[in-house]
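Please check both lines for our workbook:

___
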Amino acid sequence: MPYQNLSVKLTDPELLTINTALTDISNVLKNKVVNLTPEERSRLYKMKNNRYSLAERSLTHAKNNPHLTPPFISLTEAELDLTYYKQLQSFIGIINSLAESVADTQMALGSEILQFCLPFYNSVKMAAQQNVPGSTSIYEDLNSFFDLPPRPEEDTEPA
């Protein structure tokens, strides 16, 4: 969905509310979440939809048939893990949606800011070429951001 130019600012009370809520969430989850390394992420089993059903059914069967549960695994611990998994799952959609909205908004704002910067730079560049007092130092300061090698042309040939 296209958006109009953003012209928004969070108030100090809104910033405080957001920061307090995020701090509260972090404090609640402290010592209840883990941070995996990329290697750990690649090694771990992934719980997908059909594996979630496998987990629920296995735990139900284990509860109803304790004689089939090996003594070296804990049904109680597995049930606790599944309960926490379900609790966290209920937040993931909300958190991901919020993170996406915040990141998209920041990207849109960045684009709007840069749409200001280019015409301003071009104006300063023209002013410096015309020897407008004070424009040369501004041009030299900004020029390093624009004095880049040209980008390679996009491959527009059909595949």
